[in-house]
Each structure stands twice: as C-alpha cells, then as structure tokens.
Amino acid sequence: MDDKLDMSMMFAMHDALRRELVQVGRIARLRDDHPGQLLRAALGWELFKKFLLVHHQSEDDTLWPALRARVAGQPDQVALADALEAEHAVIEPLLTAIDAAAADPDYGYFAQVHAERISGDAPTYMPWLLNGASPQMLDAVLGKFPPPLLTAFREQWGPKYAALDIWNAGRPGRA
Description:
mainly alpha; elongated
C-alpha cells in the first residue's frame, strides 16, 4: 500500500494565500487613497477570506483529527499539531479585525490625533523621527510635506537637530 500523501493541492493553496497577502499588503501601504475602502471594494479580498476560511475549516474537520490520531503518543508531534491549530484559531478574528478597520469611518483619526499632540514639537519631532531613515522612507514621509514645511525641515529643523547631542556623547570623559 502506498502511504505517500499527495500534498500538491495543499502547497498550491498556501502559495495562493501568500500571493494574495502580497496584494493585501500593497493596498494597505497606499497613502493617497483610503486603503480600507479599496480593500473592502476588492473582489480579491472577499475571495481570499472565503477560500482561506474554507481551507482552514477543511483542515480543522479532516486533517487535524487524522494528524492527531497519527501522532498520538509522540509529544513533540502533538505539540506541533497544537501549534498549528492555535495558528488557525487566530486567523478568523484577524480577518474580522481587518474588515472592521477597513470599514472604520474614522480611518486616519490616529494620525490626526497624533499630529495635533506633536504639532508644537514638530521642529524636533520630525528630524528625530526621520534620523537614519532609509531613502524610501524619507521620500514617503517628506513627499507629504507642503513646500514651506519641506523647506523648514531641510533648512532649519534638520540642521538644528543634527547639531544636538541628544545622548550626551560629547560628555567629558566619554570617548
């Protein structure tokens, strides 16, 4: 009897799920449009959720019981099965949380509140925030600045911050 299990559909499913997560990440990184609205409007998001849940429910109903029967008495393997099932347990609540965030009419409210609270410290905060940032991150953040603010950042805030010794590195007795 051939005991080898054909896992090609399982591998294809996991590859497809990873492929679709790349698209979800692409939408989530959009800054000019409302990513939540775009995600909610994307057929791909609905298909991803549907097929992921069907896949997991099928594993829960058929694969895990068979796996547990096969590894009974092997504590390391039982622990692995427990870990796999625990991963499944968090997926549906995460999908629900993403849907809730995507439907949130106050999208961006955190950024607005944060900006209001930091506004007085912006000349120090922005150079501190971007100190050592990658060129891509600098472009992403500074690209949102209106021209006068960008000029202030480059000509005043940045140089002033660069002159600060914020960690007392120049303290006497320090090399």
